[in-house]
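Help!! Second protein's tokens look totally different from the first
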Amino acid sequence: MLKEIVTGVPELGIEHDDVCRGCRLGKYAKTTFPRSDNIVDGMLGLIRSDICGPMSTRALSGVEYFVTFIDDHSRKTWIYFLKTKDEVFDHFREFKIFVENATRKKIKVLCSDNGGKYIDKDFTEFCAKEDIKRKWTAPYNPQQNGVAERKNRTIVGAAKAMLYDYDLPRFLWVEACNTTVYIHNRNPHRALGKKTLEAVFTGKKPEVSHLKIFGSAAYCHMRDDKRTKLDQTAEKRFFVGYSETSKAFRIYIPNNSKIIVT
């Protein structure tokens, strides 16, 4: 083909295999990991986890990191916020108690990277005692835990968009990340067909009529004992999330940079 375009092409007489040595050493690219939407058969059969942080801005509570735990069967996600990575083990134990009580099943496998906080002696011994098999990604191969890696990127990307949309302060990233997970758990997932993550995990169709726009104005009633006859009866604040423990919203008060549940 080349001889049809130019003249003087020498006969090199090189035996070809797939590529020359120079190209192997100078142009070698890492093989793409195949993406799979296959899900583990059985609740808590595989839990995936990944840590994100430190964030460039500390939250009001002083946290700088978050860790996610994902049930591979339902893809439901739980998020916990950390001041230091040392807290990962404590949050895993808290998570384990919660999901095992909720499902009456046991966690069988935990997949994570091989970062120091996951291979900590106490963490490793606890999993061995609880008969939890460990799976670690190979060094510098986070794609082997792609579900957790992509989830964390999605959470951060959505949280940034929510904060920027209403010009909210960056220290509210915890509220934005928490809200993102709350919404995602109530959305359908491609790997689950038309089912939501929450429905697959709990067996119940989630209620979404209470959903609000993150950062929108929220007018909170002022108690009678906190105002006089002519004072305003409501105060403008901002909606920043949902309470997981009560039927209430999380509200940001800019005057004193405080989050309340009401």
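Here's the second one for comparison:
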Amino acid sequence: MTEVVEMGGAERSCLALAQWLYDQGIESHFVTYQDKVGLEKFAAHPLKVVQLRPQMNPVKKVRALGSYFASRRTGTKPLMSGYQPALHAALAGIDGFHCLMHDTPSLFSGAPDRSLKARANRWISDTVTSRGLKRGGKTIVTSQYLKSETTRVFGVEPTIARMGGLKHEVGFRLRPVGKTLAMLSVSRVEGNKRIDWMIRALAALEHGGVPLSSKVDWRLNVAGKGSALEAMRALAAEHGVADRIRFHGFVSDEELKRLYDDAYLFLMPAVQGYGIPAIESLSRGIPVLLHRESGVSDILLDTPWATVMEGGEESMVPALNHAIEQLIQGGHLPVPLPGLPTEESWAEAVAQICRWI
């Protein structure tokens, strides 16, 4: 990894891979410029983290990375976690590295590059990364959507290994809807997560001809922090649903468990490379609403446990209404869950692709 600044999906997936390797008796360790969160305390096994600690400018970073791997000629090719590590490895001249491509540039949060200089810089970075990915290593993605994007951007043919949800103590249970309907969103509160779509859609259903609250006492819990948090609070107030939508910000593991325990529907209309929270929700017995632009939708297209929407925001109201009506009717309850990948199956697939086993 480059810098570890928060425990996100990429960090947790790499910890899951390290745990699986440890269970197989295979030594592994993490290399990073800086670890600001203390990865060791999140691992369930003894974890070695090498912090290179270069001067924090791109040239010094790349030199430190190149020097480290030049001193370790073990014959085992390293695995880069994401776009920036792959770019830096390519600049450092590391041959044959593997890469977990969690997201391509088109999926990064924030405004698109608009200036000519910004577009030129992106093209240069993509070209350098592409050359690195073509030096003999394997590129691994989690979905068909990411595979298509990776091929388009970098000109490589990646292999799909579908990620499973994180382990949790709460098992699967059916959740028939009674008088209340708690919905849940777990993500960073950023523009690409489309939380504004959720707010406006719920407001439309509440203020329509037949208010949603006349059918069921509903609420939405939003867990996560981010740059759009205050804007989303203001939007909920503007649309008259602030009393039914609660923004929790950062939550502890215990609080997150409680929110999952209370939930009947998980909302995830984001555009993203995969979407592990959908897997985690389903494994608990919580149906999901998600967008086709979320990579995990590949395996959820033909099940009443998932409402997969397409198109723009105009599709959110009918999709959400359908998901809620299906929940109230309980049409998903007698249907078995679709086959879901696990952390272990994903980690084993990655290890096989990298030829570590």
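Reply: Different proteins will give different token patterns, so don't panic. The first helix runs from residue 9 to 23.
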